[in-house]
Specification:
The chain has 3 domains: 205 residues, Rossmann fold (3-Layer(aba) Sandwich), CATH 3.40.50.970; 161 residues, TPP-binding domain (Rossmann fold, 3-Layer(aba) Sandwich); 187 residues, 3-Layer(aba) Sandwich (Rossmann fold). It is 38% helix and 18% strand. It has 24 helices and 23 strands.
């Protein structure tokens, strides 16, 4: 057997480089690069190994470990999981900073390879700097925090363990069902240990998306359910993007005249003005889609995990309505007592279309859907129009950005009130024109995610829309975007606090407390007014503050022509939202309170809960 002597870290890097993937653009490296912040836990091992191949496998230096992992997540999401990145950080706080991002990847089912440095496997110098000592279990380290937020976890305590572990990690990263973050904890001493690895372990391997066809019995049951339906509707989920099944989906819903509601992840599966696109669905849903879904006798869920925002916390769909769930993962397909149709969407949708050829929904149901769609589009036009307000609404800012965005551009967001408004209002004209991290809705994802999305989508501008709260949580990757030359356009909506949660607090009868800065404990002078433009300039970006929508529209022109990242900030109304559309969301309210408003809100809450229980 031919062997090659390598350190464990060198073997990891060489194996990563040998993995290729067949994509829409041909065979590509599976790993487009490695994000790394070095410390004593990885600099002499993995850092040295990455240096040796820096021309073939680029290493990107970030400013925050969580931020770089968000960038890796956004990159893989934008690439529809066809390419991905790895992330490495030092033992201790550096690696723990990536745990939140690992949870983001886990919930959203996005592939990222985490390579956190770990403490000495030999334990000879224990306790080393930044080591967490566990009093009852000496095998535990801070990296064990990755276990619940990783699809695959292993700690490599001997170099030869890679022979079994690395193929399993790659399997999970590419599996359409188990897809998510894989974590290999790498003790710093083992990273530097050598082993005679088999040469053929590092042979190039080309991976392809595995597609699973449906079970014949499930397919026949699904066809019968659709044929019996009088008022069917469809949920477009993110799985349609990852399956590359958009053309098949278009044909399916167009041939059968099925009205479609989009999830956050599924938005863009149909262009915004497609005749069957009724807009967003659920808690942040369009009035058109939600009206139809509340009347439907069959919900066809395609590629969605049916989260609470999609189903209105299980209270939006009629109790007697049936659910047909087409999903590659049986875990998702059986949710909500659905009739499961387990299979890949690209393979399964044409089978449904063929079997249902000549069948379509009743003309009356289609006519109602078209009327609802036209009415909703008029509402969107009005909501996004400039009203000349001193404090514009989020919707009006979205309108200005949407009008400025070109046909290849993308909007990106994650947390606060903006995801709801964007879900309702943003009009996307291409499949990846809308990028929302709303599985975990992680504050701080936005600016770092914008960097990763731009790296994956260089052919268009990336507009990051972010509130002041998320901006202040994590903004350091603005400097990274300038350093790497990946321009991002950022629009910061400053409502002086956590406006979304303030509205939620008051909707539940609570007093304004600890959300808006004016309702927080501060010095007598109040909280400082952050100059976001000056801050972004200090990080190397171009920036300006505008006073209204008219000035914003002119600033967006300047931002598009800027060669480097550009930030625009403006003050916005913390209270106003688009009232049309939407649905109840289950946020538990206190059973006992001194406030009459809370007691009244609790009564309304219990009425919604009664409908929810009917759907269990």
């Amino acid at each position: 057997m031919n062997t090659i002597r390598l350190t464990m870290a060198q073997a990891v890097v060489r194996y990563m480089m040998a993995q290729k993937i067949a994509t829409d653009s041909g065979v590509q490296p599976m790993f487009a690069g490695v994000w790394g912040i070095f410390g004593h836990g990885n600099v002499a091992g993995l850092g040295e190994a990455l240096y040796q191949v820096k021309e073939q496998l680029p290493t990107y230096r970030a400013h925050n470990e969580q931020g770089m992992a968000h960038a890796a997540i956004a990159y893989a999401k934008t690439k529809n999981r066809q390419q991905m990145m790895a992330c490495t950080a030092s033992a201790g706080p550096g690696s723990l900073n990536m745990v939140t991002a690992a949870a983001v990847a886990h919930v959203n089912r996005i592939p990222v390879l985490f390579l956190p440095g770990d403490t000495f496997a030999t334990r000879v110098p224990d306790p080393v700097l930044q080591q967490v000592e566990n009093f009852h279990d000496m095998t535990l380290t801070s990296n064990d925090c990755f276990r619940p937020v990783s699809r695959f976890f292993d700690r490599i305590t001997r170099p030869e363990q890679l022979l079994a572990s690395l193929p399993q990690a790659i399997r999970v990263l590419l599996d359409p069902i188990e897809c998510g973050p894989a974590t290999l904890a790498l003790p710093q001493d083992v990273q530097t240990m050598a082993f005679d690895y088999p040469v053929d372990f590092f042979q190039e391997k080309i991976h392809r998306l595995r597609r699973q066809g449906p079970d014949q019995h499930e397919l026949e049951a699904a066809i019968e359910l659709i044929r019996q339906a009088k008022k069917p509707v469809v949920i477009a989920g993110g799985g349609l993007h990852y399956s590359a099944a958009l053309n098949e989906f278009d044909q399916f819903v167009s041939d059968l005249h099925l009205p479609v509601g989009e999830t956050q992840a599924g938005k863009g599966a149909l262009v915004w003005d497609h005749p069957q696109n009724m807009g967003s669905v659920g808690v942040t849903g369009a009035a058109a889609a939600n009206t139809l879904f509340s009347q439907a006798d069959l919900v066809i869920a395609v590629g969605t995990r049916l989260g609470d925002f999609t189903t209105g916390s299980r209270a939006m769909i009629r109790p007697d309505a049936k659910i047909l769930s087409l999903n590659v993962a049986s875990f998702d397909a059986i949710k909500h007592k659905a009739q499961a149709l387990v299979g890949d969407a690209k393979l399964t949708l044409p089978l449904l279309s063929h079997a249902l050829k000549g069948w379509k929904v009743a003309d009356e149901w289609n006519a109602q859907a078209q009327n609802e769609r036209l009415s909703w589009n008029a509402i969107v036009d009005n909501a996004m129009a400039d009203k000349g307000l001193d404090l514009p609404t989020d919707a009006q800012v979205i309108g200005a950005v949407n009008r400025a965005a070109g046909k290849n551009d993308m909007v990106l967001c994650a947390a606060g009130g903006l995801p709801g408004e964007l879900h309702k209002l943003w009009r996307t004209s291409h499949p990846r024109g809308y990028h929302m991290e709303y599985g975990y809705s992680c504050m701080g994802y936005e600016l770092a995610g914008g960097l990763g999305a731009k790296m994956a989508h260089p052919e268009g501008d990336v507009y990051v829309m972010v509130g002041d709260g998320s901006y202040l949580m994590m903004n350091s990757e603005i400097a990274t975007s300038v350093m790497l030359g990946h321009k991002v356009i950022m629009v910061v909506l400053d409502n002086r606090g956590f406006g979304c949660i303030n509205r939620l607090q008051q909707a539940g009868g609570g007093a304004g407390f600890n959300n808006l800065l004016e309702d927080c404990l501060t010095v007598p002078e109040g909280a400082p007014k952050t100059d976001f433009a000056a801050h972004a300039k200090a990080l190397g970006a171009n920036a300006e503050k505008v006073a209204n929508i008219a000035e914003l529209e002119q600033a967006l022109i300047r931002a598009k022509s800027s060669p480097i990242s550009y930030l625009i900030t403006l003050d916005t109304d913390p209270l106003a939202t688009t009232q049309e559309g939407g649905h109840w969301w289950d946020v538990a309210l206190a059973e006992v309170s001194e406030r009459e408003q809370v007691r009244d809100a609790r009564k309304a809450y219990e009425q919604h809960k009664a409908r929810q229980f009917n759907n269990l």
